[in-house]
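General statements about sequence and structure are easier to judge against a single worked case. For one protein, we set the task of working out the structure tokens from the amino acid sequence alone. This step matters because it turns folding into a mapping between discrete strings. The amino acid sequence and the backbone structure tokens for this protein are reproduced below.
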Amino acid sequence: MWTSARYIFCTMSVFAGLAVMFYYNHIEFKHPKMRSQKLPIATDTITALDNRTFIISPYYEPRLSQSVRVIAIIHVSVKELYCIFHCSSNQNVFVRAKINLHDDRFGFPYGTADLLCAEPSGCDYTYMSFSSTISINTGQDLLFEVKNRPPQSISSNFTVCISTLFANYSNVLQMIQSIEMYKILGASKVTIYKTNCSQDVDKVLRHYIDEGTLEVVPWPIDRHFQTSDKWHYFEGLNAEIGYYGQTASLNDCLYRNMYKSKFLLINDIDEIILPIKDQDWSSLMENLQNKYPNTSVFRFESHLFPIPVNNSGFDLWPHVPGVNILTYHLRSPNKGNNFNAPKMVMNPRDVFQTSIHLASTPKQTTNIREDTAILFHCKMRNKYTVKDLVPHDRLMSYNLSLVPNVDKVIQELFPQQ
């Protein structure tokens, strides 16, 4: 009887040990396909797995021994998730995800996360799904196409990532001027994440989509979360995620364009990375790469242009709503070591994760001096007066190209009656 009990104990110990290894180490659990051929393909930018996990998109990650990186938004309590690879053979393979919740959650209960899943051996796949448990009865009813598999060839030199348009964004004139400036400086593509905007702004977006300059990614963040325009959580704030999920959209933009664009610019629609010594981004980046060959992320300090100055020579479109950046040529001087909210130009293939002002890269990050380039940030602030500011006319040097380009778009979309 004792021998029998010892046998049972040893057997249970072996199974328990295997279970622990199964749970905590790399997991591949295979079973015959269950309905996968009939499952619909996810089309929304944000898809709820349950009320704690929201999938944005999976991307092939060849830099980490052939794996898949899934951009997601998760609750801080989530500790276990599985990628389900749908193989072309008659198998689905569960692989436990390594969960990396980004540090820049700023106290909110939900934040951006990477789910890293190693490719299962011998599995030819195009689609995957997800589960919070390893049960084959997952209830998962959507397939997600794994993007960047294989990686595309680079088709753009510069892509600008903009996130996000919210609160019925209506700044028509500044949007047109900013996009036209991006084009003058060398952008071949702009990616904008849109929650909502005015009808006039939507007309502008459609124009640039038809032109081939713009990709608009729907960003229905307020359908899933109580959102906030605050970046930091504080007691009493009725919000689950900060600043409309901005970091999630930026990381999706990073991976969406990783193999399409040589360089990626991370900034807001009211910001322009403006060269001082060079005429455009191509010459700027060529000089910076020659000077800093081991740098993959370049940060440009923000300079606020907070009030307009009456200038009838550039008051050309009074019927168009929004800020006219050509009337903003007084800059607020930056003070000492104060944080100046820099934005970035990066080689996306060297970056694993991005925040708003800083990116994670194994190579160097270099801060660029204001005599080389600045982040022109045109945003009205009533607390400033002319005596607080200093002249800065660099943007004016582009007016011979910018004015006719902007005017052409406005005459097409918003002709005066």
The two ends are 99 Å apart (CA to CA). The chain has a mean pLDDT of 90. The domain at 156-413 is CATH 3.90.550 (Spore Coat Polysaccharide Biosynthesis Protein SpsA; Chain A).
